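Running co-folding for alpha-D-galactopyranose.
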Amino acid sequence: MNLQSVFQRRFGGEPEFSLRSPGRVNLIGEHVDYNDGFVLPIAISMQTDLCVRARQDGRVELYSPVFDSQMSFSLDHLEKQGAWIDYAQAVAQVLEQEGTELRGFEGVVSSDVPLASGLSSSASFEVAVALAFLRLANVEKTPAEIALLCQKAENTFIGVQCGIMDQMAVAACAKDHALLLDCRDLNVRQVPFVLQEHALVVVDSAAPRELASSAYNERRAQCEQGLSLLRKWYPDAKSLRDISPDQLAMRTNELPETIAKRAAHVVGEIARTLEAVSALEAGDMTKFGRKMNESHASLRDLYEVTSLELDFLTDWARKQPGVLGSRMTGAGFGGCTVTLIERDKAEDFIKRLKHDYQVATDRHARGWVCEAEAGAEVL
Ligand code: GLA
């Protein structure tokens, strides 16, 4: 879609600038960002595109050709509307609180990031809006600063208690690299990620993420409970990150069963993510795939955030020729899987998967071969 010509028809004249802001897929390190752990996402080619022109009246007018919906708000009066524009208002509110002089704008926004599928469509939109406001205000911020303000927008105005991974992935990923993010201090290491003989396939299960946000908040609370119990023996621990798998094993019998399982996932997944990065840096894709499988098993058995569909897709994937590993990605309870496979088998894999999944579940999965793309940028 040519957003410039949509802009011309809608608002007349030309936009001042355009920007792009990708979705992301997390390769490993799931449900650890809010425990100060390590995550390893890449940005993907599905993205939010936005073109923008300043207005003088302090209003934001946004048109979405995908929804055929134009929505607006005044910067002086931010109030939830229960619609997609709320993400833009959320970002405006946090920027205002931080003292940025905001200018209104009109813009056309379009996104091909599947909604509510665990590929961070909302973080992608938030970061796009933040970049637009900052550019209009002539203010420079680092990717980490942008990610933090967008996370705050989501936590406060939207009311979703997400961690920092999605916004950081959208803002800070680099082309041909996976982002090893230390969620404790937001240090990043760009890990080269150019697959030659292998490919990443992302599959959307098309299953609704029922109860996702309440179950997500419950998992967070269970982690906090686990930490406060474990501090009896490990008083210096500031988060589950500070507890090693061996330390946890010594105290497992003294924790309520569910809490012990949640903590076991977190400490195991943090260690596993670092092992997966070492495997990747050593070019050992077989081991990387094995870590993906272990991650899924832990999310299924210990953290209990998979679903019938996600388990079906990953079980099915592991039986196919050329597959090295497969796991759910994102918050879970529905959404997407990510599979590492020999490149020449990927297209056929997607075709057969769609068929077998439909027979098994009556749902229509979609699949994409994804490469590591760049983070959000003004073009
Ligand atoms: C969602 C949240 C992230 C992260 C993942 C699980 O995507 O927004 O912060 O917690 O779930 O890894």
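Result summary
The two ends are 16 Å apart (CA to CA).
Residues 30-31, 33-34, 162-163, 165-166, 330-331 surround alpha-D-galactopyranose (CB under 6 Å).
Job closed.
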